[in-house]
Amino acid sequence: MNNIAKHFNWFILLVLVLHIVLKLAFISQETLYTDEPYSLSIAQQSFQEIYAQSLQDSNPPLYLFLLHIWVTLFGVSAMAAKLFSVLASVATGLMIALFAKKFCNIPTAIFASILYLGSNVQLYYSHEIRTYAVLGFFIMLSMYVFFSLLRSPNKRFLILLALINVALLLFHYTSIYVHIAQGIIALLHFRTHTKAFWHYCISQIISCILFFPWILTVFQNAPSNAGWIKSPNWGDFVNILIVLSNSKAAVVVFALLCLGVLYVAIQKPHMLNSSWNIKQFLSLAIWFVVPIVLNYIVSQFSPQFLIRTLLFTNLGLCILVGYAFSVLKVGKYIQYTVAGVVGISYLYSFSVYQPRPEQWNKVVPPLTQKSESTAVFVSPWYTYRAFAYYYNIDYFKNHTRTLELLSAEHVHFLDNPQTFDSTFISQFDTIHVITCRGPMEQFDSVLTSFRYKQLHHSQYWDMKNAIYVRSHQ
Hints:
The protein is of the alpha/beta class. The protein contains 24 helices and five strands. 61% of the residues lie in helices and 7% in strands. Strands 2-1-3-5-4 form a five-stranded mixed beta sheet. α2 runs antiparallel to α6, α11 (176-188) packs antiparallel against α12 and α15 (248-267) crosses α17 (313-326).
């Protein structure tokens, strides 16, 4: 570790190169899925249209504004749009190294950088055309400025933090937990950093004032409890920790390491080196733990307990574990052993390939060659953007007429097959049915009653594809 520390800049450069290589390795094979087509479709529109859309959306508009600029420069393609998230994820890796070096020590920066590089969940979301990777970068930027404010309170850091923190809320509302965590950390430092505490309070007041005009929109579009997300239980809480830590084994090892360091700090402080600072340790722990606990509690009433909304806590976890490892004043062989146990428990389950649960890029292209006597029905209806992207990119780009253009080619989108019109259906000799995260049985029952029989059935993860032909019996 000491040898690496001597060549820290070269090490960080190597890690950044590895980030790029790993994050680009399979990106061309990935499909758009879930909300990605929505993001890409909305990003094609003007700033005014995006703003108008966000007034009726449960998500704020800042990511879509930035994505709009990106696709204007680099084109409306899945690859180009995903590269925006990749770039943000790589930049986050750099910020982790810079943060840990400045506010902890070089060994922490090295260890945290390796953990972030080997995070399955960070790799997964680095390919998503959604706000989460970009939000992670801005949260790291916010934490860097926040800790700088604690160390050296001045107007420059105060204003900069206020602007970044209001931006966080305009990326995603759950970033409010970052604000709360920072508030608790500032309070923890109140006695020794009183001036910094009041600077932080003023910074938050400015953020609130800047965000206030958007408050009404937040409440108007707040999701109801009737949505698909359910209130979490203890098993969900544990699963979040496992995903953030890569494995069950890593959860146990990380907990033992951190609790062990606290025990040593109380009982045998001579076993900790000069880098040890209890407030720094607790600050990193607050960054990781508090947002998860608060989100869990709030989600009992308004469910939002999802790994993507807590992705940023992995950043705090990586730095916390790196710091806990770095402060141990032990022999070289013990240090290597601890590093090996931590590394193996975390990295053994790492996978460069992070498959998506939908495979539109495999299911849709063959349908472009269908005949006039063939109809396609896709469920649920809101998947039309993903279908259109791989069926005819021009239909996707023409976002105001996408459904109309697809319908003209006998491609229809619906939620309930009971709405089938037997007279309309009877025009077609062949029917393709595609369901995404839904049962095929209802379609099978209805089409069978219309004298169609299933000729072929296939499944790609959460997608099912069936072909029906008219029975002549």
